[in-house]
Design goal:
Blueprint: E1 7-11, H1 18-29, E2 32-35, H2 36-49, H3 57-66, E3 69-73, E4 78-82, E5 85-86, H4 94-99, H5 101-105, H6 107-120, E6 126-130, H7 133-137, E7 143-148, H8 151-164, H9 171-187, E8 200-203, H10 209-227
Parallel strand pairs: 1-6, 1-7, 2-6, 7-8
Antiparallel strand pairs: 3-4, 4-5
Bound molecules: cytidine-5'-monophosphate (C5P).
Cytidine-5'-monophosphate is lined by residues 14, 36-37, 40-41, 100, 104, 130-132, 185, 191.
């Protein structure tokens, strides 16, 4: 695509289908996909590896400052490198899920990671997903999408994903986890989950991934044409 590369911000609650959609969208546009949640996960993993409690705000901020996080697109997924090591699987462990909240709520960590995210997307041609992308990271993004789906549907999707990985867990546990995550995402003082005023809301409850990608892809093409007639 020879036209001006734009920034696409995709925000929404946990398990709303953001990552899968954003990755496929980036592939179709030939853009870079950045999973901002993976960065909070990587810092959490690093703290766990170094035996630092994630509640130690200062030490965790230091880790965020000094660690090197990189994304490398692969055929079906994006490889996350933490200081050169492939941690794509490790960052999704239950251990990381349990300890991540203080990291995501740490204002200094957010400041550092937001700066890294802004640097990665500086030249455009990027699809970034998260909670605060359209509001804090790229308030100037040319296209902002806010993806939502009912908590019940998100729990069903997460359950399917976990079962496919061989995790033995029941629907109620997953549903409660989704509600807890929503609460912490919405009530966080710094960088909470918010809909940007100029975001396009996409309710994905009854949509397939292919439909979600297609919808946002059409919106992106329309935006690119508008900016570069
Ligand atoms: O999207 P994902 O579930 O991988 O996010 C992991 C954690 O990082 C969540 O707890 C979420 O609140 C946090 N996060 C964040 N800001 C972002 C993206 C994710 O605080 N931009």
């Amino acid at each position: 695509m020879g036209s001006r590369p734009i920034k696409i911000a995709i925000d929404g609650p946990a398990a709303s289908g953001k990552s899968t959609t954003a990755r496929e969208l980036a592939r179709r546009l030939g853009y870079l996909y950045i999973d901002s949640g993976a960065m909070y996960r990587a810092v959490t993993l690093k703290a766990l590896k170094e035996g630092i409690p994630t509640t130690d705000a200062q030490k965790v901020a230091q880790l965020a400052e000094t660690c090197h996080i990189e994304f490398r697109p692969n055929d079906h997924q994006t490889i996350v490198l933490l200081d050169g090591e492939d941690v794509s699987e490790q960052i999704r462990s239950p251990e990381v899920n349990i300890h991540i909240n203080p990291v995501a709520a740490n204002p200094r960590v957010r400041e550092i990671l937001v700066k890294k995210q802004q640097e990665m997307g500086r030249r455009g041609g990027v699809v970034m997903d998260g909670r605060d992308i359209g509001t804090v990271v790229f308030p100037d993004a040319e296209l902002k999408i806010y993806m939502e789906a009912t908590a019940e549907e998100r729990a069903r999707r997460r359950l399917k994903e976990l079962r496919e990985k061989g995790v033995d867990i029941d629907y109620d546990t997953v549903y409660q986890e989704i509600l807890t995550r929503d609460r912490s995402d919405l009530t966080r003082k710094h960088g909470p989950l918010r809909k940007a005023p100029d975001a396009i809301v996409l309710d994905t409850t009854h949509m397939s991934i292919a439909e979600q990608v297609d919808k946002i892809y059409q919106l992106a093409l329309q935006k690119i044409r508008e900016l570069d007639p």
